[in-house]
């Protein structure tokens, strides 16, 4: 597919068709890299987005061992050594 480069302020831009963005799985942001003499556009991996904030928040709510309260099994009840 050919596309025109358009002027946007002091920069330049490309219009990417909506269908292509949907197939790419990109909503509002993409990653652009220069590779082998061309541009490579890929979706931003948001798999773990928000995990750091959630982990920090959970730590503020109590001690880490409190997270495992009530999840003991038979192995935990037996006496064992390393």
For the sheet with most strands, the description reads: 2 strands, antiparallel
**What is the distance, rounded to the nearest whole angstrom, between the alpha carbons of the first and last residues?**
62 Å
Please tell me what the overall shape is: elongated
- What is the CATH architecture term? Ribbon
Task: Estimate percent helicity.
Answer: 25-40%
- Total count of strands: 4
The fraction of residues in strands falls at 15-25%
- What count of helical segments does DSSP give? 3
Task: Name its key features.
two-stranded antiparallel ribbon, two-stranded antiparallel sheet, 82 residues, Pemi-like Protein 1, Chain: D
Structure description:
The structure is a single chain. The chain is α+β, with helices and mostly antiparallel strands and 82 residues long. The protein has one domain (1-68): Pemi-like Protein 1, Chain: D (Ribbon), CATH 2.10.260.10. Helices cover 26% and strands 22% of the residues. The protein has helices spanning 18-24, 51-60, 74-77; strands at residues 6-8, 11-13, 30-35, 38-43. The strands form 2 sheets. Strands 1-2 form a two-stranded antiparallel ribbon. A two-stranded antiparallel ribbon has the order 3-4. β3 and β4 form a beta hairpin. The longest helix is centred in the C-terminal third of the chain and has 10 residues, at 51-60. The mean pLDDT is 82.
């Amino acid at each position: 597919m050919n596309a025109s480069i358009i002027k946007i302020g002091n920069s330049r831009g490309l219009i990417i068709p909506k269908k292509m963005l949907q197939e790419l799985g990109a909503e509002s942001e993409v990653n652009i890299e220069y590779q082998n003499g061309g541009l490579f556009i890929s979706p931003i991996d948001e798999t773990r987005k928000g995990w750091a904030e959630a982990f920090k928040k959970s730590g503020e709510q109590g001690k880490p061992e409190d997270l495992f309260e009530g999840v003991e099994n038979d192995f935990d009840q037996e006496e064992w050594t390393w």
